[in-house]
Amino acid sequence: MNKTTHGNSGKIVLLFGFIFTGLITFTLLYQWANPSGGWLRGINNAWVNLRLNSPAYLAVVFKDEAGLFDYSYGKLINKPADPRIIIAAIDSHTLNTLGYPFPRKYYGKMIENLNKLGVKSIVMDVFTIDPDRAGPESERQYVQAVEKAGNVTSIIDWDRNNKTYQLPIKGLDIASKYIAIPNMDKTVGQSDNVVRKVYLFDPDTTYSDVPGLKIKCPKTECGPLGLAGLAAVSYAVYHGMKLNEVYSIFGGDSLSLNFRFPKVRKSHPGWENDPSTTYSLYQQISVKDILDGKLSKEQKESLKGSMILVGATAIGAYDHYPSPFQANMPGVEIHANTLDNMINGDFLKPVNGLLFSLLVLASIWLPIWLIRYSISVITMVVGAAFVLLLGLDILLLNRQYDFAFGYYVVCMGLPFVFVTVNKALAEGQEKKWIKNTFGQYLSPKVVDIITKDPSKLSLGGEKRDMTAFFLDLAGFTTMSEKMTPEELTTMLNEYLSAFTEIILKHDGTVDKYIGDCIVAFWNAPLDQADHKKLALLAAVDCQVEMGRLNEALTQYTIKPAARVGVNSGPMVVGNMGSKTRLSYTVMGDAVNLSSRLEGANKFFHSKIMTSEATFAELKDVFDYRYLGSIRVVGKAIPVRVYEPFARKGEAAPEIKAMLKSYEAGIEKFYKADYAGSLKDFQAALAARPNDGPSQFYIEQAELYIKEPPKDWDQSFNLTSKG
Length: 722
What we know:
Shape: rod-shaped
Structural class: alpha/beta
């Protein structure tokens, strides 16, 4: 395997991992110091919006007409608005009939009507700073109504940038139950302008800081507190609590909103045949309908014991804030959502910061750690991790924890993309290298296998049981003397190309060409359980091809013969050579013996010679004969050798006739019945004229009849390497 390519690829991935980890660490530290900023937070906000809205998308896909944001798993993460919270809406109908701003006496009348219907608290998200254009009497009626009600909260204007205050009209501050501020949007600006965190009490100023403010709340109760938001005062009135008691429960830090989802409602249920609808988080009742008493039975019942927030909802009259569910939403609904979270105790809680940060950083290294595996494995593991984290995100959100899954999408997703692209490029180079390296001497099938899964390829100096194959063209020296170099080269290419195709057809690996000799082996680089059989099938088919070529290539007067030697045993295989030039080859005594067997064919005048080590288990697969036992040069231990002719039962008729007599002769010969064997070998030669081994044993029988060998171990000693 191309270790240089993989080494460089691994270093690049590690470098990316350290750089990306540093970037994310810096981002996390920055966001810790600046909670409203950071590009990661913006991405996570986009995920939050998608997560909350996806149940509704699924409802559309599956055509569930009743489905909304609580469809499917939406029931676990999305909650509808609390019906106890109602918005008295300064809507288009109110403005069209009363004008804007309309006389404040109408606010007084609205307060009287609401209290008659049993509301528990009323919070005015309406500025009453400038004098009433309808005159002082209109203002007096409003202030009296507020004082009489005893459950109305009014607001003052607090300019945070200039640190200035504007009080409401004279007498309204002391007449109100509480004074609050409406602008609790200090965290607006987190990439999409959605108010995701709110303060219940302003962190920058207290009631004691506001000059000229007169309130019923004693200094011991309200003086040191930050100015309260609309939700905090409404909660206090609803539960009959003091503001400092509310503060003791919720504290002064910012809180993460758990958003409620909107619904479609009738705009004026108390009207007859009104087709208009309102898409809002909370039930909105038109201020004009409240003034006119044109409320439905259901509206009247819902107002009993309710918390009312009075605010503008008419286009052009309200302050616009997007939510995860709506592009534009009246600001009063932010206060309503905050109040909803308060009374239901379900603000989102942060996950432990240290644990969260460690998990984010660890997620970066998961794809990097998996680089040793295939892209499919990396994809499955990272995909499983994403699914697990997604499930955890939904589960934790159900338990009111803000898990920030979007961080993991980025911190695991970007390294995953980098690793897979880098690995794909490296594997592309590796596959190109494999094809260039092995394409010339491996079958296309084998090359395809190791290209698809390079892990199957082992290129180190590995010792394994293998089969070696040597094929040599007999009479090459004679051919070279009688042919021109060009003719000789062309002829060799014809024969060697044909033999190479047969070797590759039987999934062999072509090691090298040595002149007119082909060296091949089996059981490397891929495991081949039947490597011995494959090598012998290649040897048999090469002899068949030899005969076909000699007939087909009529342009050559010389008809060569081929000798094949096949042996199996332990060999060392791998890339061997110098630092600048390597060759994938085999070495070992078993390889050398294969070469000796090819040459030993000259001794018996046979065409294929294979050892007992290769052939012992294959005698039922081939038509064959036993050649004898030989002791090659340099070896003291003899080797039993065989000559296969064809697959079992497929030998030519003359070979089958020859084998019948030959086997009878062999049996007698090795029982020292040389005279008896001579007749059988002669019959074998008659059945197949020019049969080399039959001629060899005829000569040996004639020799031993005259002078039987003494102390013969029935092995022939070869005196040359062949």
